[in-house]
Amino acid sequence: MVIKGISASSGIAIGKALILKEDDYEIVKKDVVECECENERFKEAIEKGKVQLQNTINTTMEKLGEEKSKIFEAHLLMLDDPEFVGAISSKILLEKVNAEYALKTTSEELASIFEALDNDYMRERAADIRDVASRIIRILKGIESVCIGDIKEECIIISKDLTPSDTAQIDKEKVLGFATEIGGITSHSAIIARSIGIPAVLGVGKEINHIKDNDLLILDGDNGIIIVNPDDKTLNNYKSKMLNDIEFKKNLIKFKDMESITLDNRKVEVAANIGSAKDALNAISNGAEGVGLFRTEFLYMSKEELPSEEEQFSAYKEVLEKLEGKPVIIRTLDIGGDKKLPYLPIEEELNPFLGYRAIRLCLDRKDIFKTQLRALLRASLYGNLKIMFPMISNLKELREGKAVLEECKGELRKEKIDFNDKVQVGIMVEIPSAAVISDVLAKEVDFFSIGTNDLIQYTTAVDRMNEKVSYLYDFFSPAVLRLIKTVIDNGHKEGKYVGMCGEMAGNIELIPLLLGMGLDEFSMSASSVLRARATIKNLKYEECKKLVPKVMELGTSDEIREFLKNNTK
Fold this sequence. Notes:
Layout: E1 2-4, E2 6-9, E3 12-20, H1 35-64, H2 66-80, H3 82-95, H4 99-115, H5 120-124, H6 126-141, E4 155-159, H7 164-168, E5 175-180, H8 188-196, E6 200-202, E7 216-220, E8 225-228, H9 232-252, E9 260-261, E10 267-274, H10 277-285, E11 291-295, H11 297-301, H12 309-323, E12 327-331, H13 358-364, H14 366-379, E13 384-389, H15 395-414, E14 424-429, H16 432-436, H17 438-441, E15 447-450, H18 452-460, H19 478-493, E16 497-500, H20 511-517, E17 521-524, H21 529-537, H22 541-552, H23 557-567
Parallel strand pairs: 3-4, 4-5, 5-6, 10-11, 10-17, 11-12, 12-13, 13-14, 14-15, 15-16, 16-17
Antiparallel strand pairs: 1-8, 2-6, 3-7, 7-8, 9-10
């Protein structure tokens, strides 16, 4: 039996199924006479929950890094949120009910609000609310938390869902992978699975109930499928694939300190996308030739208030020093859409991805923007810093962004603070309008970086997290590939280099085509760097160039995929 889901973390796992059952405790409404005592019991449970979460944060930071630990910092913030906690206390005191019932009903009301939003990322935040509520209910009921970290035998976990708390406990030596009935590639469990490096297939639906404890499974995270009790031929094929993959990864280490040069001497850069200084070390250890995208929003999301100029300066300086002169492209604040700051309220929007976010927010809140730009300019003395504006849709926004940067330079000169006056400024091309007028924009930037994650989504009008239409979100879309070629051509006409920092940059099947189009820089997750470099070093640029006109004539994704499969190594 083959069950289809969403590929959330790549790789192949073969092992026995372990069915992880949901908490089966029942929440019953009880009338309470001593309401104050009940409220105190609730508050004590909250404090115990905070201690548990702090321990989880410490463990996650040590195991997975700072960025992933922020998931649980958000949970901790929820327990400190006077509105959330206050609403539960009010229910206990005013309705004279038990804490478990007040917590369950209040959290479900809030989770339901998130689930009703027209945004998959926000809908998946309902899982975080339920995770926090479940933690406190277990404390109130004196139930020991199920510890995935205590699993003793190798298995593939099958569950309706996995909370972030569950996933953070995973020992990859025992848990070979997991599949869930619900969830998508932006869920926190998917993010952690990718960080740990185990395959995951999510959003399987009710068919997951056909899987029984101890069924032999092949979990194919590359293709988003689960094969239940495979025949010998299928099993042997997958075992061979796994052995080949292990051997291939071992051989990649020899490419760590090499340049990314084709067989006919075309040099490109293979860089890494990062979100923190710790990620920078991972990028270096994986042989990245620079940082093609430093997502600065994580610096903001880890704080309880806007980070100061000094805090930002220190963070940027640390990354630049770690890269030791290698290029570091730092994207200015990209908040809004699916990324919210609790201390920076943004009015709810019907279509947040098309609304008040990124450069639009920064140009409106120049106080926030200037603080960041001043910190970036000051840090520019410590390495090869390049500044990139996100979500540029027209020339006016670009000019306004550059004008604010010039204001900051003027202020620093007056204050006699040194900076690199020649720091390069570029834009992220992720909106179709920017791609269409890239010939105009190229005259006023130092570089382009193509953000394919959003460019594909906006070009094809597809929410990539929506499993019903996710088949339309396609790296091989002829429309997207034509836009990419347009951007590269227009950048090169003005003598500007063009990079790509979306997930597409690390797609092995597309690297020959992107190379042939003339892409100068490929930036991807650190774990993909060596594989991409190995691919590039086995290609001839002149041969890859010949692919481009032929691909541009093809009309469907399937035709392009098949053509590249048959005409590249």
